[in-house]
Amino acid sequence: MIPDMMRAVEISEPGGPDVLKPVSRPVPVAGHGQILIRVQWAGVNRPDALQRAGLYAPPSGASDLPGLECAGTVVGVGTGVTRWKTGDRVCALLPGGGYAEYVTCPAEHALVVPVGLSLREAAALPETAYTVWSNVVDRGALRAGERFLVHGGSSGIGTMAIQIANALGARVWATAGSAEKCAACTKLGAVAINYRDEDFVKVLGKSGGADLILDMVGGSYIARNLKSLADDGRLVMIAFLGGAKADLNFAQIMMRRLHVTGSTLRPQSEAAKARIANDLRCELWPLVEAGAVRPVIDSTFPLADAAEAHRRMESSEHIGKILLQVADEG
Ligand SMILES: NC(=O)c1ccc[n+]([C@@H]2O[C@H](COP(=O)([O-])OP(=O)(O)OC[C@H]3O[C@@H](n4cnc5c(N)ncnc54)[C@H](OP(=O)(O)O)[C@@H]3O)[C@@H](O)[C@H]2O)c1
């Protein structure tokens, strides 16, 4: 029985974590090509904090509620949906709306909960899996034997990137800002570089340079990333936590045949996200089910404590993913 109203957490006004307020909202209805999910766990991502601060508007047509991923049970299917039926356990990439008891999303953006994972673990997968696969494997074209560097190695994105790159047979380096974070990166299979003590340009230089770098920092890292690349190397930007501007010598891009690219996931078309989902189903999910790639979970909070979860994220003390428990696991 689906109720008319649900518990949710909304952004009452742009601002700090305290603007996240528990509210009652109407349960959404699955439209054509969509499914309705009863959410048990929702992922917290850095872009949620940007949206909360008024710096990242939801795309048109998306829920104003935060929340880009969840895991739960399908409780409704819209017209034209053949992939799912009521009762299926899924995790899904959402255009928004995950901080709620019910959410709708395009049916093609949901994935089956991998065998061996709980709903809690599955909720930690979609945003990082879509982002890392599309930027490291598709855009970055990482191949076995290549040298891969990821910045923010202990982040949700970083912990996924280290594991995927390892599973693909790459040699992996990761930067992080504390001994504890570096230990976590090492445990996942990366050579960890504590950027407070060591210069990643020198470390990578000694090994011949990186073939691919995944960067979320930007700012002063941009020029240093180019220096760290081997000839023909690729730099993929997915965020600019340290700033988006840099003073660059472009000649090295020409002389050493470097590639600089990047992407953001959320504004991409439904069809583009469905293509990524298909790659995840075929190529990443078998690695997850084999235990080669596992979500790293830092902490969990009840939905009503979403503000506390955002404080944890913005403290940058976390290692891996932060989750909200929306309902008991059934
Ligand atoms: N382009 C896309 O499609 C896409 C999709 C999802 C996420 N993202 C972005 O990817 C990044 C990682 O996402 P996430 O959810 O994994 O976040 P997260 O877990 O909070 O990771 C951010 C990490 O970046 C490091 N960092 C370096 N410089 C920083 C700075 N100036 N401010 C804050 N942190 C800094 C921090 O680790 P240290 O303590 O080691 O510095 C922190 O753990 C975010 O910026 C997010 O917006 C992009």
From TrEMBL:
InterPro entries given in the database record: ADH-like_N (IPR013154), ER (IPR020843), GroES-like_sf (IPR011032), NAD(P)-bd_dom_sf (IPR036291), Quinone_OxRdtase_PIG3 (IPR014189)
Sorted UniProt keywords: NADP, Oxidoreductase
The keyword Transcription regulation appears for this protein: no
Record domain Enoyl reductase (ER): where: 15-324
Domain of life (superkingdom): Bacteria
Name recorded for this polypeptide: NAD(P)H-quinone oxidoreductase
Source organism: Paracoccus aurantius
